[in-house]
Amino acid sequence: MWDLFKQTQTRAHGSSSISPSEELKKLLKKVVSFRDLHIHVNVASDASLTSLEAKAQQEEAHIPSSSSLYTAGQNNTHRVVLEQKKLAIILVGLPGRGKTFLCNKLKCYLNWLGHPTAHFNVGQYRRKNKEGDDLQDAAFFDHNNPAGRAARERAFHLALQDLMGYLHTEAGQVAILDATNSTQERRNKVCEALRGRVRYIFIENICNDPDVLQQNYLNKMLYSPDYQGVDTEQAVVDFMLRIRKYEDIYEPIEDRNMHYIKLTDM
């Protein structure tokens, strides 16, 4: 009876000689662990990784150098393979919803846990690359303003390029992209840049609580570089107009094929 049972088990499991401990190690390699954050990943084959690396190297040969806010160091060699220990966090949400506050909290917490984390704010790139005395008021954020839209696209691509540069360094482990990312088209661009290179997750910050919004708007008036030296009442009017421009085109995350978290009234 015992011999029959052993023969049945052998047929069920095949002729593999892998020990349970080795099977466990293989399974653990398929999980990205940030202590309280676990993202299951599908490990690509060596052939697909080689293909990805060759394709990415061709793309990098055509990427122009940017006027970056981030310098990756003297040896900034890009290792374009599927980075199982790298994570990109992409914020989504209307202006004044506390995205930057959340980014700073995440950055401090993850660095405290021992996971080197960098914060890439698209608004900083927009202000840094402003041409001359260009006025970046509410009209600048109108979707039908071609000049403003082009400037915001440039800022987005510079920030995304620096984010990828950081994650391809030995030290960089987590990168946070801080922007509205308010349309599915914009989020698709982020996915195309990150897919096959690093793991990524979206966090949509939704806030409709009047009290929370009022406090967020007050902080925006006090601390945002966009409104330094601007009369408070004028700043509030302009910021509310800016929000309406974004509301006109805003698309909440509904794609079930994306990894995302939704935070409400926080």
Summarize the structure.
Helices cover 45% and strands 15% of the residues. With 266 residues, the chain is an alpha/beta fold.
Largest sheet: 5 strands, parallel
Average pLDDT metric: 79
The count of β-strands is: 7
SS content category? alpha/beta
Oligomeric state of the chains present here: single chain
What would the principal axes of the Cα set say about the shape? Answer: globular
Strand content: 15-25%
- Order of strands, main sheet, comes to 4-5-3-6-7
- The amount of helix comes to 40-55%
SSE string: HHEEHEHEHHEHEHHE
Characterise the protein shown here.
Helix content is 45%, strand content 15%. The strands form two sheets. The chain has a five-stranded parallel sheet with strand order 4-5-3-6-7, sandwiched between helices. It has a two-stranded antiparallel ribbon with strand order 1-2. It is globular, with a radius of gyration of 23 Å.
Features:
266 residues, alpha/beta, five-stranded parallel sheet, two-stranded antiparallel sheet, 9 helices, 7 strands, disordered N terminus
What's the helix and strand layout?
Elements: H1 2-13, H2 20-28, E1 31-33, E2 38-40, H3 46-60, E3 83-92, H4 99-113, E4 117-121, H5 122-128, H6 146-167, E5 174-178, H7 184-194, E6 198-206, H8 210-223, H9 232-247, E7 260-264
Parallel strand pairs: 3-5, 3-6, 4-5, 6-7
Antiparallel strand pairs: 1-2
